[in-house]
Fold this sequence. Notes:
By secondary structure, this protein is of the alpha/beta class. The protein is 46% helix and 23% strand.
Amino acid sequence: xxxxxxxxxxxxxxxxxxxxxxxxxxxxxxxxxxxxxxxxxxxxxxxxxxxxxxxxxxxxxxxxxxxxxxxxxxxxxxxxxxxxxxxxxxxxxxxxxxxxxxxxxxxxxxxxxxxxxxxxxxxxxxxxxxxxxxxxxxxxxxxxxxxxxxxxxxxxxxxxxxxxxxxxxxxxxxxxxxxxxxxxxxxxxxxxxxxxxxxxxxxxxxxxxxxxxxxxxxxxxxxxxxxxxxxxxxxxxxxxxxxxxxxxxxxxxxxxxxxxxxxxxxxxxxxxxxxxxxxxxxxxxxxxxxxxxxxx
Length: 296
């Protein structure tokens, strides 16, 4: 992609996402994703209704009265976008592609975080880490992230998030918000996923193309795997399409179970979706669920 084409696409991305970032998403984002870092505030006597897990047993033993440790939440949030740049995400397809939708999602999330004065970083991956951009504040940094995403030319074709998640664990010792964007056309390692979800606030966002969910009827067709280069003949008649739909549905059900098992959030959308509206709905759902879990 030439510098002129890159600049034009970046401008189009900014224009397309400006209104939802400023008027639809920012408030929802701020409510759904609060700062997760904790700073020590004080030790005070325990009162009925306080969380038992906050009791400081050393002070309690010394004084003979229950005391708790209080922490205050940091307002600033660190956000990592961990974006799949493998060949399956970048494949050409009728209409809006998965790669186009992932650009828009990344722009909405990055600019919403920047609008909230949060620091944003990005890891681009295939079956290895392709590029790391450390978290920083500011609109210029956000535009640099999006420009690098548009310009990425991965060295590898495959898809495996394990190296990126491993790198994230080394890069971020404190709890951060991790947004994992992919088409997830692979079985994920639940142990690696669980390690990231245990330390960080993990959200998986799966982008599907309608042809993957409901393949077009075309009888026998030669299908090429974008990542391995392997070509096979697929039956896309009525029975073959039903089998494809069932297999895709089963794989997505396993994926949802994997995220649920490690207590991570998961959002699924397709390339025809309104990304801003889907994100706003997800933010509202997350806020309601968090309120239910914490009693408000």
